[in-house]
């Protein structure tokens, strides 16, 4: 049962403490306001308001562009600039002059009353214990995992676990002050280690603070009172614990909570009917600790105290949770590294995603948490191997190196045939030379990127260690960059004919095949192997079959690297979330083609077929989504909020915009490589893939249909490949995506989504083989 204060877009970029533009601005009369913030793509955004609490919708959304010391703003006929601490906006004869101002909470700095329990006095953490793995009620020693900064500030240390009070409480009045540091933040304070007030930064966001994961959904607050990054904020919480009968074994009244954020009451006597989701296994009790969550990002607290109003005699009251009654749960709120939440895949772009479901940082509906084949090992353990899918427990593929020193013998695959073919590469070269769009602009983007630099040099590792929330982060970004660079250099070679690019690609691939001996470990090792394992073969196919300078012995080493260092992390799939298993399927398909290994390729096809129909919903599936083979029900909700099941919604749509986009890219990429080999996976799941494209596109500019509540959508570096197939090859009509594609071009690099506009923008069916008969 979770209470959420949404305080920043999960994809927002880092804000600098010295940024003079970000924050609140108001006119002299206090009638108009502008909030300037950093958008999802790292650009400046603004919104003109007539109510600073966003009780009313923004009057105008503004786009900003910085030039030197001047920030220009524009939108809906308004033009303006921020210069020398003044913001000027004009629209026709209407002019606004604004100055920056700072809000403060009326309870900021409030002293603990006589008799209060001071939990943090700025000097020590004597009232706290460290929250170890799966420790939610009792701590595991001194809270030396967080640090105390000068001026009495307590800071969460990423990857160092959460903390909880040594003392347990029932009814309390809690005061705390917190500050976010301009990074994507998903922390929180848990009452009784069960009921969460989720601390995120919603400054600049038009949606009100969200609330979820309670058995009876409540109306969202009508205001958003979040302060900008680097400004202290307050939470004042009145919490009433559940009531029990004289035996302490039967609940007679639900818990209640009142939350005051920055002096504004956002929830008043809200009844919390039942502990659900990731906290459900704890049941309900008369007392419990206050729990401060570490969730992968540094953020700060100060002046924490409470008035203890616990009713005597309730210390032993307890009612088992719904999950416990059903026989337990494989989830739990500890997950990766002892944090409430889970692995939270490191996104490689500086973004850390929590995720829907109790294995990925959020709570899930109890019907969706039971999975088969999970691992009980800690995600901060290098031996952690993820939630292996029992459907692939008995696969038979070769995982040992071929000692012959020669490339694998032909298995009947078409080469080059991973994502692109030879005729397609020749067409790209022709279009770029002729200045034909969209290839012209996409090529310039590639050429001017770091991945296309003539002096690019690899940064190989002997082992790639990718833990939850980049703890540890040893070689993860290096590997992602290098595989993208190898593919980029291969494309540059194919388009320009400059052999330096081909030699660069070979240098990168050889560096990794000679150094990588320890594979991929820690919680995000398998998904890291999937992301990079899908890109390496794209580069290798182009170089091996269009350039004569890559020796057979080096090709053999590279094939052995893929087989020994990548495939073992992929072959047993993953039940945790669909984006992972789909990325694994794509990597297996691509590796199978380059390695001329039918067993690996066929396994990837099988995995794709099993997971794709379970990832994209169609109403024809019935009232509930299809279950992925071997895993039981997948998680479609987020923080207890279940979106409406409509045609084309993706399994992780409720989670964020990025993960379902990555999953769809894997679906499309794998289908494209299969089509290059004469297998039409596109046709097998056409209804789902087309529905997913149109479902997503309808909420993006310029379509801009009103988004379903609590769902987010954003431009991503994908969709070109599937769009090219269904529209340019088959002549289908996708009106929503047709409007989005030009706005999204040219696409760049994001994990396994690499230069799609360049390779597939309006490319049609050039070079495709005849479809094989089933």
Automatic annotation (TrEMBL):
One of its GO terms (molecular function) is lyase activity. This is 3-keto-disaccharide hydrolase domain-containing protein. It comes from Pseudopedobacter saltans (strain ATCC 51119 / DSM 12145 / JCM 21818 / CCUG 39354 / LMG 10337 / NBRC 100064 / NCIMB 13643) (Pedobacter saltans). It comes from the Bacteria. The keyword Transferase does not apply. Residues 115-306 form the 3-keto-alpha-glucoside-1,2-lyase/3-keto-2-hydroxy-glucal hydratase domain. The keyword DNA-binding does not apply. Residues 321-386 are annotated as: Disordered. SUPFAM superfamilies: Chondroitin AC/alginate lyase. Residues 481-704 form the Alginate lyase domain. One of its GO terms (cellular component) is periplasmic space. Residues 329-347 have a biased composition (Gly residues). Keywords: Lyase, Signal.
């Amino acid at each position: 049962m979770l209470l959420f204060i949404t305080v920043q877009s999960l994809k927002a970029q880092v804000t600098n403490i010295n940024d003079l533009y970000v924050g609140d601005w108001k006119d002299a009369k206090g009638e108009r306001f502008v909030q300037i913030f950093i958008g999802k793509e790292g650009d400046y955004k603004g919104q003109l308001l007539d109510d600073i609490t966003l009780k009313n919708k923004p009057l105008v959304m503004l786009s900003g562009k910085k030039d030197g010391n001047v920030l220009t703003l524009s939108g809906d006929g308004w033009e303006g600039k921020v210069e020398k601490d003044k913001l000027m906006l004009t629209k026709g004869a209407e002019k606004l002059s604004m100055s920056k101002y700072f809000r403060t909470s009326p309870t900021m700095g409030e002293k603990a009353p006589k008799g209060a329990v001071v939990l943090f006095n700025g000097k020590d953490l004597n009232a706290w214990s460290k929250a170890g793995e799966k420790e939610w009620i009792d701590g595991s020693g001194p809270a030396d995992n967080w640090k105390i900064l000068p001026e009495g500030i307590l800071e969460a240390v990423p990857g160092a676990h959460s903390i909880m009070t040594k003392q347990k409480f029932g009814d309390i009045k809690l005061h705390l002050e917190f500050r976010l540091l301009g990074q994507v933040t998903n922390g929180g304070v848990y009452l009784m280690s069960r009921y969460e007030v989720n601390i995120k930064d919603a400054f600049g966001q038009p949606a009100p603070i969200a609330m979820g994961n309670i058995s009876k959904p409540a109306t969202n607050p009508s205001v958003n009172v979040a302060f900008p990054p680097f400004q202290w904020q307050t939470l004042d919480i009145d919490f009433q614990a559940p009531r029990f009968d004289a035996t302490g074994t039967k609940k007679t009244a639900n818990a209640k909570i009142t939350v005051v954020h920055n002096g504004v009451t956002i929830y008043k006597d809200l009844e919390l009917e039942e502990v659900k989701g990731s906290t459900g296994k704890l049941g309900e009790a008369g007392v419990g600790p206050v729990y401060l969550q570490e969730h992968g990002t540094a953020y700060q607290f100060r002046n924490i105290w409470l008035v203890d109003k616990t009713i005597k005699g309730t210390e032993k009251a307890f009612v088992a949770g719904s999950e416990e009654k059903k026989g337990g749960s494989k989830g739990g709120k500890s997950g990766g590294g002892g944090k409430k939440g889970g692995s939270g895949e490191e996104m490689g772009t500086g973004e850390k995603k929590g995720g829907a479901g109790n294995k990925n940082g959020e709570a899930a509906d109890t019907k969706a948490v039971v999975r088969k084949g999970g691992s009980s090992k800690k995600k901060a353990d290098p031996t952690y191997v993820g939630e292996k899918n029992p459907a692939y427990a008995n696969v038979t593929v070769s995982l040992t190196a071929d000692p012959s020193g020669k490339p694998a013998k032909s298995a009947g695959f078409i080469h080059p045939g991973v994502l692109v073919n030879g005729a397609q590469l020749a067409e790209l070269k022709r279009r770029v030379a002729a200045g034909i769009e969209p290839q012209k602009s996409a090529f310039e983007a590639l050429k001017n990127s770091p991945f296309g630099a003539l002096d690019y040099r690899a940064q190989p590792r002997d082992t790639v260690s990718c833990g939850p929330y980049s703890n540890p982060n040893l070689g993860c970004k290096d590997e992602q960059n290098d595989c993208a660079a190898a593919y980029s250099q291969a494309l540059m070679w194919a388009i320009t004919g400059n052999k330096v690019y081909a030699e660069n690609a070979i240098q990168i691939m050889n560096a990794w095949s000679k150094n990588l001996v320890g594979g991929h470990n820690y919680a995000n090792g398998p998904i890291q192997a999937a992301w990079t394992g899908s890109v390496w073969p794209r580069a290798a196919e182009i170089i091996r079959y269009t350039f004569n300078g890559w020796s057979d012995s080096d090709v053999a080493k590279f094939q052995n690297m893929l087989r020994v260092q990548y495939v073992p992390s992929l072959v047993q799939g993953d039940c945790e979330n669909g984006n992972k298993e789909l990325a694994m399927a794509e990597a297996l398909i691509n590796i199978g083609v380059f390695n001329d290994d039918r067993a690996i390729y066929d396994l990837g096809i099988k995995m794709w077929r099993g997971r794709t129909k379970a990832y994209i919903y169609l109403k024809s599936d019935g009232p509930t989504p299809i279950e992925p083979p071997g895993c039981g029900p997948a998680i479609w909700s987020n923080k207890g909020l279940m979106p409406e099941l409509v045609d084309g919604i993706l399994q992780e749509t409720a989670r964020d915009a990025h993960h379902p986009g990555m999953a769809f890219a894997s679906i499309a990429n794998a289908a494209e490589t299969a089509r290059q080999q004469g297998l039409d996976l596109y046709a097998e799941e056409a209804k789902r893939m087309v529905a997913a494209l149109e479902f997503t596109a309808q909420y993006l500019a310029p379509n801009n249909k009103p988004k379903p509540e609590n769902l987010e959508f954003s431009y991503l570096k994908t969709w070109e490949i599937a769009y090219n197939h269904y529209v340019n090859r088959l002549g289908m009509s996708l009106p929503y995506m047709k409007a989005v594609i030009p706005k999204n071009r040219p696409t760049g690099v994001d994990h396994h989504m690499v230069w799609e506009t360049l390779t597939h923008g309006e490319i049609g069916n050039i070079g495709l083989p005849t479809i094989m008969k089933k």
